[in-house]
Design goal:
about 180 residues; alpha/beta; 8-stranded mixed β-sheet; 10 strands; about 30% helix; about 30% strand
């Protein structure tokens, strides 16, 4: 069965998005760029919700930079009951209906790991259903306060996690990797 890795980028106060925060909350750097490139370089299938799909498709489908080109080439699945096929973004399939059944089937059928990027509501749902095998949270050194939008872990149920790794990127971004703890929380 394929592993499902959920990646979330959040501010120090836990927001995944903020007013005028920009990509990576304005904290891009060479080590973060290398991490993104490395993550995209490994075979995987990207799983995302409708909102993330629409945002990324708009950015990547016509862009020619290395990250966008790779995103266009890799297989993707969008979970949505409102979108309809055919989907505009190349190499993207639609998963409709029951989340557990759809992602469960994808995990059983995929020859490569699954990886979600953002998609906060989707990650919360997959976590509640016990489908997430690793949760990676990149914490950026920024407190958004009243400018914060989309709490990164909102909607998640109580869950015990075990720290599987921690890395500091560009001397300021902390990448925390967790695995679910069975039977505790």
């Amino acid at each position: 069965m394929a592993e499902l890795i959920a990646d979330l980028f959040v501010s120090l106060d836990g927001f995944a998005k903020g007013v005028d925060a920009g990509p990576f909350f304005g904290y891009s750097g060479p080590e973060l760029a290398s991490w993104v490139s490395d993550a995209l370089g490994h075979p995987h299938l990207v799983v995302m919700g409708r909102v993330t799909y629409q945002a990324l498709a708009e950015i990547s489908s016509s862009a020619t930079d290395e990250v966008s080109t790779r995103m266009n080439d890799i297989p993707k699945a969008v979970v949505s009951n409102t979108l309809a096929e055919p989907l505009a973004w190349a190499n993207t399939r639609l998963i409709r209906g029951d989340l557990g059944a759809g992602i469960g089937a994808l995990k059983r059928q995929s020859p490569v790991p699954l990886r979600s990027i953002g998609s906060i509501t989707l990650v919360a749902g997959m976590t509640r259903l016990g489908l997430v095998d690793r949760l990676r949270v990149a914490v950026f050194p920024l407190i958004l306060g009243a400018d914060g939008r989309e709490p990164g872990l909102a909607g998640h149920g109580r869950a015990g996690l075990e720290l599987a790794g921690a890395t500091v990127l560009d001397s300021r971004i902390v990448m925390l990797e967790y695995r679910p703890m069975s039977g505790r929380g």
